[in-house]
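Possible regression after last week's pipeline update?

I re-ran a chain I had predicted before the update to compare outputs. Posting the input and the new output here so someone can diff against the archived version. Not blocking, just want to make sure nothing changed silently.
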Amino acid sequence: MDRKEILKLEKYFQQRFNLPSVTVRQRPQKNDSAEVYIGDEFVGVVYRDDEDGDLSYNFTMAILDIDLE
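New output (post-update):
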């Protein structure tokens, strides 16, 4: 993902979750995904999927059982 695409995703996350502290950062050595943070806390990865000419993004976030307490 290039910087322009990352900024679009960051703006989307910030508006969708009404959370201006969300940032999207490039991953070292990876072109198909970026990391999502809330403040300094890593929360997940967004993957770019452009199979068959249809572009979409998949956001994956793991939730540990200890985080639910």
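Follow-up from reviewer: compared with the archived run. The chain has a mean pLDDT of 94. Marking as no regression found.
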